[in-house]
Amino acid sequence: QLIESGGGSVQAGSSLTLSCTTNGRVFSNDAVGWFRQAPGEEREFVAAINWSGGMTYYVDSVKGRFTISRDNAKNTVDLRMANLKPEDTAVYYCSSGRVAVPTYSRYSSPSEYNFWGQGTQVTVSS
Fold it and tell me: Which pLDDT score, from 0 to 100, does residue 88 have?
């Protein structure tokens, strides 16, 4: 299981850093993706990183504002979110899996990920 932390309620323009780790399983060989789901909406891809950290992918709406990174020695993946907007309000989920093909379409697909966290709420007020 994956464990997310770092969510909260902030004002527009603020920053938050979400962290993802596991409860024992090492995911240094896995790709890790962050997805989000707003009330009444489909789950949406946000960002992903390959096992080494050498490749990252972002949905267009967060490019330039969000940064995904990992520390395999600490078994953590962070999502730093800057200049937050009200439309970023959602439950954010961390996921991991062995994504075989290094393409945006694969890294952004929930079906490529086998393990999921319970989610952490991010609320951005205007």
Answer: 98
pLDDT digit string (tens) for 78-117? 999 999 999 999 999 999 999 989 999 999 999 999 999 9
Strands 76-81 and 16-22: antiparallel
Is the model's pLDDT at 1 over the cut of 90?
no
List Cα–Cα distances, 37 to 30, 53, 87, 112, in angstroms. Answer: 22, 24, 11, 17
- The DSSP code sequence of 66-106 is EEEEEETTTTEEEEEE-S--GGG-EEEEEEEE---S-SHHH
- Tokens describing residue 80: 């730093």
Q: List Cα–Cα distances, 112 to 88, 89, 103, 126, in angstroms.
A: 23, 24, 12, 34
pLDDT of residue 25: 85
Residue 21's nearest CA partner among 9, 29, 32, 8 is: 32
DSSP state of 40: T
pLDDT (0 to 100) of residue 112: 96
Structure-token pair, residue 126? 């205007």
